[in-house]
Amino acid sequence: MYKTPPKTDTPLATPVQFVKGVGPALAKKLARLNVFTVEDLFSLIPLRYVDRRRIYSVAEVPVGKEMTVIGQVMSSGIYLLGRSGKQVFQIVVGDKTGKISAKWFHFRVSYMKGLFQIGTKVLLAGEVTQFKNTRQFIHPEIEILDQESESLEAGGKILPVYPLTEGLYQKTMRRIVRNSWEGFGKYLRPALPLDFLERYNLADPWESIALLHFPASDIDVDVLNSRRSQAHRTLIFDEFFFLELGLALKKAKMVRQEGIAFPYNEEVVTRFAKILPFELTAAQKRVLQEIQHDMEKPYPMNRLLQGDVGSGKTVVALSCCLQAIASGYQTAIMAPTEILAEQHYQTMQAFLKPFGIPCGLITSGIKGEEREKLYRSCRSGEMPLTIGTHALIQDELEFAKLGFVVIDEQHRFGVLQRQALHKKGKSPDILVMTATPIPRTLALTAYGDLDISVIDELPKGRKPITTRLYSEKQRERLYEGMSQELKKNHQVFVVYPLIEESEKLDLKNATEMSEELKRIFGSQFKVALLHGRLPVPQKESIMHDFKNQKVQILTATSVVEVGVDCPNATVMVVEHAERFGLSQLHQLRGRVGRSHFQSYCILMADYRRSEDAKRRLKIMSETNDGFRIAEEDLAIRGPGEFLGTRQAGMPEFRVADLAKDMDILNLARKAAFELIEKDPDLKLLEHQAFRQILRSRWKGKLELVQVS
Ligand code: ADP
Ligand code: MG
């Protein structure tokens, strides 16, 4: 913390500590809300508003709406809730007309007792509910009214409600914002170009901020609370615009970089198609064309290939690698797990054989001479295709001529890892792949600088997977079902969750489960156990045996979550399904249903399910549609979690809400991309201000977005 205000580029960058009435202690609390500077404080747009224009008398305050009353504390204290014995803090407040109570279920006794002394004048605001024959507030917002605050807080106003953190009160927040506005509001410069305001029906940004922090008393509170006021629209647009402007700038830069133009090689494509044991789907053919067209261009490709689990992304990636190899370049494919890297290696090897093209594998398990040999062949430029895990990005591994890079299951890698692989070549083309269908809003933000290809169709003859939700009581039925499928010579996955802090315990569960399955099925079928701690060769041999159907039941921790492809498996049993996230469940289910056989996914779940878990399981049993599942996942977890914002390297939204503001996002994106098209380097005089804003909004992260 500073003693005197440091020199900053603009007064708005002044640490919030120096706002009148803040100081180091409050600044620490504000930091928890990601508020560090005066500007951050202005961007902290209220969550909602309370209407204090009308203070009701206690007798007439209506039930079921957000209301405000003022009265005197008549009694206060703790009582115990009937059956549970839980402590409740209650006060009764009265005015000339009657009495009303307020209750708290979470509180600190000493604090509450001190606050609500008999006779204290208080303001209570919140929803009034009816309980038996009394009316009450539950966890209301409160103000202790002395002479001064009464005039400030209570008098005929619409008041903002800010996000808070422990030890920071609504009243304090309002005061801080007011003080900083008085001190620094004048330095706020509208950033959006004036002609935008008219074109996109926006308000003056400065006025919008002022209005949202200090709403005039004649404003419509409902419109404010719906976030649909023109002021909201303006600030949301502003936020999206500068995000998209950064992305557009980055994309424009990419286009002007020198890259590799891979000429289209018809012969390779035709030969590859002939080798495949199936015909490519129309969607696979379409995305192949898109990618190859992009590869022909003389600047670096940066493309996301999106396709639901089992849609056949691997062969598409391989076909593209072949194009690059045919022009004399090296290629690499990075996968998040050893099992998946090994599987890709097997698949690719088989497909490449007829071409006489070798490929190499690098994982942490590959050591000694084998590793050295691979290093040598990569460095000399001989090795055309290298497949690997994170081991691919080690410093020792160098390529003579890396021209094309594939990152499979890209969401499992961090930005820096993707960037590291990219740097192994000289502006290589990049294809990142994901099975998580990203809702459009997110695609336009998180992947706004990438081009996107989508495989929106599964190979012919796939049957929708039947999903069932079982509880422990139905275990017999589960075994019966498994047995029926096993008798048809099909195979079964049984997956246990892996929770980091109790890895040992989970392993024990999986081990016990595998013992039980051996007792039940062992006389007829082979059961194996696969988990992350096994040495690599053993993992490989187990996967190998499962693929070759020597093992019929594979018990595993979630190491099989992504990518694993064993088309003969028709049953996926997920134990403790309530512990898995939606996208994980969808990925796990995607391990089956990869052939023309009917497949089943059985979710074994505990009865004590949290609300979120219930919702997840319900969606899983309702739909196989990865797109719908992703949207629900987004709704449950929110965009930050869903994307892993840390991983995406993007600024966080302060006002905008990706789930709700799609229309504004589209407008802002269009505006940003049009502007960059006209002025790709932001050289024009009237755009100079944007550079500064971009720098402060993106906080140096602009270079990091996505792959490069
Ligand atoms: P994902 O997109 O989940 O990575 P994969 O690439 O692993 O899917 O493909 C899933 C399975 O479907 C593999 O066994 C693959 O060989 C097979 N496959 C891919 N394309 C087709 C197709 N056009 N017709 C039939 N099977 C296909
Ligand atoms: Mg895959």
Which characteristics define this entry?
708 residues, alpha/beta, OB fold (Dihydrolipoamide Acetyltransferase, E2P), Rossmann fold, 7-stranded parallel sheet, 6-stranded parallel sheet, 25 helices, globular, binds adenosine-5'-diphosphate, binds magnesium ion
Please give a structural write-up.
By secondary structure, this protein is α/β, with parallel strands linked by helices. Among the domains are: 54-155, Nucleic acid-binding proteins (OB fold (Dihydrolipoamide Acetyltransferase, E2P)), CATH 2.40.50; 266-296 and 312-434, 3-Layer(aba) Sandwich (Rossmann fold), CATH 3.40.50; 466-623, P-loop containing nucleotide triphosphate hydrolases (Rossmann fold, 3-Layer(aba) Sandwich), CATH 3.40.50.300. 41% of the residues lie in helices and 18% in strands. The protein has 25 helices and 21 strands. The strands form 4 sheets. Strands 11-12-10-13-14-9-15 form a 7-stranded parallel beta sheet, sandwiched between helices. Helix 14 links the parallel strand 11 and strand 12. Helix 7 (205-213) packs across helix 9 and helix 9 packs across helix 25. The mean pLDDT is 86. The structure holds adenosine-5'-diphosphate and magnesium ion (MG). Residues 313-314, 408, 563 line the site of magnesium ion (MG).
